[in-house]
Specification:
single chain, 405 residues, alpha/beta, 5-stranded mixed β-sheet, 15 helices, elongated
């Protein structure tokens, strides 16, 4: 209080604490003041000695003398006897009463347990929900090491800019990143069927019936006259090889082949050798968990009120697929629960033999496959010869079969 009030202690222990009683401004008549004063009160008053004596009579714990007024020796002596602190301040009673409330130590208000805090990776939606239920103005933000790096307030949420994104190789809400509803979509580049995603304003939407979105991106480089670097060429060419299964997929077009050849030339790679290395690396399942295998190429789709997911696992031989099948079969139930799906389908695609074994789980899943491909289930799966494309050969047939169940 001495520091806050710019005061001087006249009597008493400067290290004492004011922990009981109430704060009184003794500005009324003496009889009214006597009625309100009690033991251990803190009394703010002026130069009226009669009021000072009244406060001491009621065993006040502290007197704040305003206006830098001189205090008589008798009052000081009596306060000494009663162990009452007297502080002199140059401020007026109104200012003193306001500053007294600001003189409390911060630790009186601070918490050390059950703190409301956020990490730098927390989503804005989650932060907003917590803030709506708490009465704090500001909340601390911690880094990966749990160290304080800043504060966030409701004001920050109001001024927060949306993320600006471009959707590439998909245009359906279920396949988009978390929080897509709170982002500004600037454009879409895709080669799949047009889904149900809506935008509040017109955006650039480029959708072409080619085997790989990277073919479209290659065209955009050419149209804008932008030079493609060697690393980018290697990535784009690898994507085309992967999506078209080195031109074996029925989705492959002449545009895909032309783009891949130009990109391979820039990247300095032999496509046949590169494709074999890619497919063998992709089918190395020994070090991967069932979760990693199933989700490495996984997409969700909607048919009416039915939500289903399709994972595609490709390998160079039937033996590799038989081995991975035993690992992913029991994991299908976990996928359904985690993604809240009605059905789940896993394509085990043999690249060299251009065929797929389809395993599935969920009410009506078997019936949908039987209806779509006129096949019977054999040893936990359906053998679909010639089917290697999820986009062009599997999804259209499944959508139609599920919708007409």
């Amino acid at each position: 209080m001495i520091e806050t009030l710019n005061g001087t202690i006249l009597v008493g222990n400067e290290h004492g604490r004011y922990i009981r009683g109430k704060v009184i401004v003794a500005a009324d008549s003496l009889p009214m003041a006597e009625e309100s004063m009690e033991k251990d009160d803190l009394v703010i008053l002026g130069d009226r000695e009669s009021m000072q004596k009244c406060a001491l009579k009621h065993n006040a714990s502290c007197l704040i003398i305003c206006g830098g007024t001189q205090v008589s020796k008798q009052i000081l002596s009596e306060a000494q006897d009663k162990e009452c602190v007297i502080i002199s301040t140059p401020y007026d009673p109104f200012t003193v009463s306001r500053l007294i409330m600001q003189s409390m130590p911060i630790k009186q208000f601070m918490r050390t347990k059950n703190l409301k805090k956020f990490d730098i990776e927390d989503y804005v939606d989650d932060v907003r929900e917590v803030m709506s239920k708490a009465r704090h103005r500001d909340f601390p933000i911690l880094d990966h090491d749990g160290c304080y790096i800043g504060m966030i307030s409701r004001r920050n949420l109001l001024n927060m800019q949306k993320k600006r994104i471009v959707l590439v190789d998909h245009n359906e809400r279920q396949q988009a990143v978390h929080g897509i509803d709170n982002a500004d979509i600037l454009g879409i580049i895709d080669h799949h069927k047009i889904g149900s995603l809506e935008t509040p304003v017109p955006v650039m939407f480029r959708n072409q019936p080619v085997g790989c979105t990277s073919t479209i991106i290659y065209q955009m480089y050419m149209e804008k006259g932008v030079k493609i670097t060697k690393p980018i060429a290697g990535l784009l060419c690898s994507a085309i090889i992967s999506d078209t299964l080195l031109f074996r997929s029925p989705t492959c077009t002449e545009l895909d082949k032309q783009a891949a050849e130009k990109l391979a030339e820039i990247a300095g790679i032999d496509m046949e050798r590169h494709a074999n290395e890619m497919f063998r690396a992709g089918s190395n399942f020994q070090s991967k968990s069932a979760e990693e295998i199933c989700y490495q190429d996984f997409k969700t789709f909607t048919a009416g009120e039915i939500l289903f997911g399709v994972s595609q696992i490709s390998a160079m031989s039937r033996e590799e697929l038989d081995e991975v099948k035993e690992r992913v079969l029991p994991y299908q139930a976990t996928i359904m629960e985690e993604r809240k799906l009605n059905m789940v389908f896993i394509m085990l695609t043999d690249i060299l033999n251009e065929s797929t074994e389809l395993i599935c789980l969920g009410k009506g899943a078997d019936e949908a496959v039987e209806k779509a491909f006129y096949k019977q289930k054999i040893n936990d799966g359906f053998r679909l010869r010639g089917v290697v494309s999820r986009k062009k050969q599997l999804i259209p047939e499944l959508l139609d079969a599920i919708a007409n169940q």
